[in-house]
Write a structure and sequence with these properties.
Blueprint: E1 3-7, H1 11-21, E2 28-34, E3 40-45, E4 48-49, E5 52-53, E6 58-60, H2 63-74, H3 77-87, H4 89-109, H5 112-121, H6 124-129, H7 144-153, H8 157-166, H9 183-193
Antiparallel strand pairs: 1-2, 2-3, 3-6, 4-5
Helix pairs in contact: 3-4, 7-8
């Protein structure tokens, strides 16, 4: 289960994010998607981090999804998808629409102060012309992780393709059901809540 959110991370989520990244997080504006337990899957990043444009709006932080998508990249899927972009105009148009949506979302999420900082630093063109993952050539695919992060937060044809052809969505964390608890756990929870 994926829940699209747009909230600042709480302390528990910050600790999970630090564990996922292997370092203290920087530049996080919000948790953009979580699983059913509130564990971050995708982060929404600030446009400028340490005085430089951050290359991606959405950052995939789920360890499980990162591993699965790395496995897919390792078998050469990017080159096959780029070939498909060259051969199928409808697929290319859908891909370029994903980029346009991404650029629009990135700009819309910026505050006036952030837009002023972007302009002052000379990065307006970067923020309004670079697509998913900061890519400038919208006929190429740089990284499936950034595509999938966008898919979890928006409409991304590459992410949809990964779900259809590689069933990445089967790796989403599953919400706990009552059946997964023992009777003793349920009773103990009930008793302690009274």
């Amino acid at each position: 289960m994926v829940i699209r959110t747009n909230q600042a991370p709480d302390e528990r989520q910050l600790a999970i994010i630090a564990q996922q990244l292997g370092r203290a997080p920087r530049g996080i504006e919000a948790v953009a998607a979580t699983d059913g337990e509130g564990t971050p899957l995708v982060l929404r990043m600030a446009p400028i981090v340490d005085g430089k444009p951050f290359p991606t709006l959405y950052w995939l932080c789920s360890d499980v999804l990162k591993v699965e998508i790395s496995r897919i990249e390792a078998v050469g899927v990017i080159k096959a998808l780029e070939q498909r972009l060259q051969e199928e105009p409808e697929f290319l148009e859908a891909y370029q629409q994903s980029h346009r949506d991404y650029v629009s979302a990135r700009w819309d999420y910026m505050s006036d102060a952030q837009r002023e900082e972007v302009a002052k630093l000379g990065y307006t063109n970067v923020m309004t012309e670079r697509g998913i993952g900061g890519i400038s050539n919208w006929h190429q695919i740089r990284c499936l992780h950034t595509q999938y992060a966008h898919h979890l937060c928006g409409d991304n044809v590459i992410g949809q393709w990964m779900d259809e052809h590689h069933q990445v969505d089967r790796f989403y964390p599953k919400p706990l059901s009552l059946a997964s608890f023992s009777l003793a756990t349920v009773l103990a929870t009930f008793i302690f809540q009274r």
